Amino acid sequence: MNQQLKDLLARGNQLNSPNYAPADIVFERGEGVWLTDSEGNRYLDFLAGIAVCSLGHAHPRLTETLQQQAGRLLHVSNMFYTAEQIELMQRLVDQSFGDRVFLCNSGTEANEAAFKLVRRYQSRVAGRESKTKILSMKSSFHGRTLASITATGQPKYHDGFAPLAPGFDYVPFNDVDALEQAFDDNIAALVVEPVQGEGGVRPATEEFLTAARDLCDRHDAFLMFDEVQTGVGRVGELFAYQKFGVTPDVMTLAKGLGGGVPLGATVATEELWKGWKRGSHASTFGGNPLACSAGAVVLDTIEDEQLLDNVRARSRQLRAGLDELADEFDLISDVRGAGLLVGAECGEKASEVVRVARDQGLLLNTAGGDTLRFVPPLIIDEDEINEGLRRLRMALQQV
To answer: Where do runs of H (alpha helix) occur along 268-381?
Structure first.
């Protein structure tokens, strides 16, 4: 590491808020599934900005669209329409169960909007003032603002932030009996990730999601899918609810939707949107034309380049390769996931594997503290999967 880079990193560590602990790498450019740092080292990116860079880095179609949009119009606020905003909402409605869309900047914001929407519907439309409770899963993750972190069923994320937002409760993930026992007539909504991301890359069972749908229907509650990580092609269908065959009343999107540009969305049925009236909620930057143009390009490219087929094929290849590594290395105790959201459980050695893999030029991170998370760009090809598995094998040998 040269002195200039050392000085730059030292300055970053002095200036950056202490809630982050970045690696000693400064990235300068990316292309496809590769990133290059300031010293010219190349890394195979199986992290994709934590499932954000759905089209990889510097995708020509997305790059051209953003350049043109930046030269034409960046922001006007939600006091006015732009064609880009309307076009993105139309695509989301046409390709999902939803009837209307609220656009924002992140998954946390999309979840906050959904929580407010279901509660206001119950109190102001249905007249059910006591139905305020939101039921979520243990080991879930829904964001970092006060309500979304309260919905997150992991105590480590709650530490030091009391008092948390009232009206949230938790049940064990994939436990139908526990879910049935927890349901009562005070529940406004049930929120679930079709695949728990931060909880260790754990897919929901169809039995559990079917029971959740049935219980919500019987108790006049809304079923909410947090698809911030699973949506936009990540699991091999455009949205995870389509893969699992259970349709929610509201879903939240972000991460891969903007391909790297901050963009979130809350998509819901016409009936549920009755919960809001003019002024019920807002986002200054939500739906700005730059982000919306990115979202439309991402959705179009997934369709035009048949990326869902690629996700399914590369998922089979990745999981088969990880299964082979699990047979070779006792360190890997389980391989699970859906599409290109795959986890390999490694116990207490997971963080060390991530560090050593990075030295081998492979970018990963952990989920749930003990699981390697693989979320490469949806454009990744067969050779690149093989190369990633080769580098991972070298890392596992060292660990």
So the answer is: 270-273, 289-304, 307-328, 350-359
Q: Give the chain's length.
A: 399
Q: Which fold has domain 73-304?
A: Aspartate Aminotransferase; domain 2 (3.40.640)
Does residue 169 carry a catalytic annotation?
no
Pairing mode, strands 250-253 and 334-338: unpaired
Q: What is the spatial distance between Cα 101 and Cα 88, in angstroms, rounded to a whole number?
A: 9
Catalytic residue list contains 370: no
Q: Active site residue: 141, 173, 183, 208, which one?
A: 141
Encode pLDDT of 128-158 as tens digits: 999 999 999 999 999 999 999 999 999 999 9
138 in active site: no
Q: Which of 131, 133, 243, 255 is catalytic?
A: 255
> Pick the catalytic residue: 226, 243, 244, 374?
226
Determine the CATH number of domain 3-58+306-398.
3.90.1150.10
One-letter amino acid for residue 53 of the chain: C
Cα angle 279, 114, 242 (rounded to 5 degrees) comes to 135
* pLDDT tens by residue, 331-345: 999 999 999 999 999
| Residue type (1 letter), 39 | E
